[in-house]
Amino acid sequence: MATTLPNGKRIRQSAGTENRQDAEALLAKIRLEAFREHHFGIKPQRSWQEAVIRYLAIKATLRSFDDVQRICRKLDPFLGHLLLDQITGDVIWSVIQGVLAKGNKPATVNRYLALIRSLLRMARDEWQWIETMPKIRFLTGETERDRWLTREEANRLIVVSPPHLAALIRFALATGCRAREITGLEWNRVDLQRKTAWLNQTKNGTPRGVPLNYDAIAVLEEQLGKHEQFCFTYQGKPILWEITNSAWHTALAKAGLKDFRFHDLRHTWASWHRQAGTSCDELKDLGGWKSRIMVDRYAKYATEHLRIAAARIEDGRGGNVVNLSRFSHVQKEKRS
Question: What is the DSSP string of 20-87?
Fold first, then answer.
């Protein structure tokens, strides 16, 4: 199928059908939409499914691409039959109610809403497929995961883990690096003399440097000579599989730990830092977060700046506490 549109653009593409009448109908539709857009500024209507195809092509390089695909599939029953300009606030509400009706928690609903909002913003701001989009607010009541280990629990986990897993755990606790950042770390990105590692496989896609403390360097020095390219290996080969496999779960059981994920080691690292007095701004840079939003969740673990305030009412110190009831009684006696 080939034609020249009113704006002078020539297109050549498959109609996706062997039926001549269907192909001619599609060609007529393309010409009509091009005519309306060229002469009257009326944009052709685009479907949710068209947008999903382009959105997935853009997101294909993300390590979380499987999750993006999964959420798109889950949303298809709600939005797959709609055009983009048919997605209104009422439609968003129906998605929320439908997802909740399946027993999902607010956190899951918010992930669905985040994808819808991201896709519609691209369609509006980058692709110019739509002029407006509904305002999408996340649900309240999402429970923030707050799981971290004490020093004693961490040591218990390390002791019962096989050597390759223990090395990964120790490095995660020393640096706060994510699982894939650790397993993908190569020797050409490590400088033990300068005590620095450079990550090129970060979650947000932005390379960053990681300062290596004594514990991190000790782990890396133990790995020297095991592989010429990758720092962390298993039986002489790079670790290309999911870390939370049977070895991980066996170690958790032996250590007596429940409801703990490898990523919670990063939460543990951040919690330890705040308890040790590391500021939120320092922690943000250490962990490679782009904003303070994710870092502020750890603020509750630092209380050293409140110690003086807490001491003001210590028993026996008196301080500036005024006994209001007695003060009021004395004033009445004086007046009488």
Answer: HHHHHHHHHHHHHHHHHHHHH-PPPP-BHHHHHHHHHHHHTTSTTHHHHHHHHHHHHHHHTT-BGGG-
Q: Quote the tokens at residue 25.
A: 């109908």
Q: Is 211 helix (H, G, I), strand (E, B) or coil?
A: strand
Q: What is the pLDDT of residues 275-332, one digit of tens each?
A: 888 888 888 889 888 777 777 777 666 666 566 667 767 765 555 555 655 555 555 5
Residues noted as catalytic: 178, 203, 263, 266, 289, 298
Q: What is the CATH number of domain 151-301?
A: 1.10.443.10
- Average pLDDT on 249-257 reads 95
Cα 24 from chain centre: 46
Please report, for the chain, the start and end positions of each structural domain, with discontinuous segments joined by +.
Answer: 2-40, 48-126, 151-301
Nearest CA to 271 out of 159, 165, 141, 151 is that of 151
Residue 161 and residue 247 in contact, taking contact as beta carbons nearer than 8 Å: yes
In sequence order, the β-bridge partners of residue 238 are 233
CB neighbourhood size of 82 (10 A):
14
